Structures are given as structure tokens and as C-alpha cells.
Amino acid sequence: MTTKIKFGTDGWRAAIAHDYTIENLSRCAQGFASYMKEIGKAGSWIVVGYDRRFLSDDFARTVAEVLAGNGFRVHLTKEATPTPVISFAVKNTGSAGGVNITASHNPPTDNGFKVRDHTGGAIDPEGLLRIEALIPDEAVEVVSMPYAKAIESGAIEIFDASVEYIKNIESLIDLQPLRDAGLKILVDPMWGNGAGWFPKLLGGGKTEIIEIHSDRNPLFPDMKRPEPIPPNVDPALAAVVRHGADVAIINDGDADRIGMGDENGTFINQLQAYALLAYYLLEVRGQRGAIVKTLSTTNMLFKLAKLYNVPIYETGVGFKYVAPKFTETDAIIGGEESGGYAFRGNVPERDGILAGLYFLDLMVKTGLKPSQLLKKVYSLVGPHFYDRIDTRFLGDSMEKQERIRKANPESIGGLRVIDLDTTDGFKFNLEDGGWLLIRFSGTEPIIRVYTETTQEDKVQAILRDGLKIAGIE
Fold first, then answer.
1. Which of 80, 153, 180, 333 has its CA 20 to 30 A from that of 427?
2. What secondary structure does DSSP assign to 367-390, as a single string?
3. Is the pTM above the cut of 0.85?
């Protein structure tokens, strides 16, 4: 029976050797090729890159062969390359789009097929649906050119995507003060594509870079998955204390997301990180322009936007929503709760490397440690507290969504419900300015229950009520 391929937020992810096979990947590549022809990009250049997961280099070669067979010319990265570097290469080379073989932060059993438009950003939801519709039912409908022939004819060109990306980074931030600052930085690339990047960019001065989990290991030891949230970040946070480091920079498997730890080995969650990065751009860099946020990330941004008199836009969850609004508004920053942030002057795509550099620059420019920086931001917007629970579920998601829609709670965690926003999932706005969000993952059978509140003692009560509303407890 033919596998029905369903695209999620950025493309397709599945378990290797189950649904994720050479045959099904070839079908995906054919769907993307047909879509690019349909929108008038026949014969154009396409960038193809990949991560350090099991067989990713072979999978990338398969995609390149299909694109070449369909008359496209392919820039294929010479090695495993961070997602933001691949995205920048699409824009920098003037390519019509990109394909990235990565499952990002998924478990080690998975791989993925992530697609990008000519800006290097996510393809909009309508485009994703069209690609999905154009995926052929059978592999015999796939057109492919053998790799050796494609290389010989010039249809596939191997290239180094890092050179121009680094030039752009150096145009956005002066790295020399970071090299000279004498910081001790603990870097955890989570066995992924970010390995070696911070030593490459910041080495040679007084600053010391200590990398852990920097080899290629597709099993991702010491963590359930290469996602920069607890408990996966715990080894890095412990290493901060062990080495006496000033900060931890933690990238996910493809280096488009970031997690951070302070000098005490305490995790700086994704909402706090977004507020700190926005503060850096607004206060330290003096930038002005729009902020784009998903509805699942921090309300601290509304308060910062008001303080600095800049516009703010809220979107559904995922960069397929953030990227178009980011581009449309020429935003200074766009981001989401997962720890992915995009910045003006780069590409409309998450960049965990640039985010890390900007945070280090915030430390150097202010002379403050991470815990002190968080206190500084809280002095402007007040303390905010966040947590989330991800739970796998069985059964029909539509039935569960209907149950949530009909719940109509008057209060959650002891706080009165102001209204319900169903833009993307079910967001219950609460009387203290906080919220509870119940949302179904676009890539896995998982219900995510999140909260942000200004009352620390309410966090767990809100989450428990959220699980009950979702029918989990």
C-alpha cells in the first residue's frame, strides 16, 4: 500500500526505514520539483543540504538526483550544514528554493524533508498543501538523474555554504569584542550541525569556548532528542557549573533553535530568551521595527513593544506563519516558543547561531551576567513564569479538539478566563495577563499544553487544568 505523505509545519518527518524510505523521499522530491515548475521556476537552481542524522547525506543525494532529473540545477552542500546556513545560501545564491534533509529536534529514529522558498524562509501553508498534493502516488512516476551523470554534466554542484554566511554574520555583528571579552562559554551543539561553529567564529582571543556533544552521533546520547529544552539540556547546565562557565549556548540538531543557561547552571527558557533578545535589539542596538511572535510565545513582548513604541504582530504557530509576516513588515525579530528566532538583515528563518552571538553581545555590551540580564528585563515588564507538558495520545484528534472547544471553563488554575483564541489551537487568555494554550503537534501525535503567567504559584495548577480540559487527566 502506498504511503500517504502528510506535510506538517515545515515539510515531512517520519521514522527511518518505516515511512521514511528512499522511495518515499523520492516521491517528496518529485512533488517539490513539480511545484517549482508550476510556479514558474523550471530550470532554476535549488539548494540541497542535510544534517548529521543517520543516512542524511545519502538522502540528500537522492533528492538532488530527482531535482536534476526534473531539469533543475542543484547546489548540494559539501557536508552537514546548519539549517540557517542552508537558508542563507538559498537567498545568497539567488536560488528558487531549497530542500533540507533534517528532522530538526525529533528523536534519533526520524529524518525529514524541509522545504524553503526563494527567500530562504518557510513556504506558506498554501504552498505546502500544493506540494503535498503534487507528490505522486507511485515511485515509478519519479524522474531522476544518476548522481555521477548529474555531477559530470554540472546539474549538481558541490559547494561550501559557510563562507558567504560568515561574511553576512560579520556584517551584522562585530565579533572581535566577543573574542576579546574573556568569557568562558559552554557550547552544546547536541551532536548536531552546530558543532564547531562557535569555536570557528569566536576562537583566537581571550574568550574560551568549551564544547560538549560535538562529535557526530546519530543516537544523540545523554538526551531523548536534540531539542534544547529540559531535560535534554541538563548535561549542558551541569557542565556550566563544573567548568565555571559564564553562560551555556545550546543548539538543537540542525542549529536553527537555541536554548541557554545562566552562570549558575539555571535554564533560561524560550520565552525568557525571546524577551532578552528583543530587549537587546531595542535597547542595546537601538533598532526599531516590528516584532513578530506566535501566539504560543511570551506576552512580555507586548509590554516591550509598548515601552519602545514599536508594532507587534501575532501569528499561528510555526515559521510558515512567522516568515511571511516577518518579511512583509521588515521586522527586527520574529520568533516562536520552540526557541527559534529570525533577525533583520539575515533570512526569515530561525537562526540559533546568530541568536547565540547576539546574546553573547548583550552580555558584553552591558557587562551583565545572564541572571542579571533577566532581572533587568523583569524590572521593565514584571516577572513571567512558563512551563509546558507534551503528552502522546491515541485516537482521533478531531474528537479531542471538539471536547476542548466545548469545555468553556470559567476559570483555569484559579484565574478567570477572559476569552478563547482559536487561531491555532485553543488559547485561553487569563485575567492576570497570562494564558493557557492547548495545541496538537503538526508532526507527531502529541498534545502540547503550555502556560505563561505572572503568578509563579499558579503554573502547575494551570497546566493540570489544561490536561483535564484536553481529556488527558
1. 333
2. T--HHHHHHHHHHHH---EEEEEE
3. yes
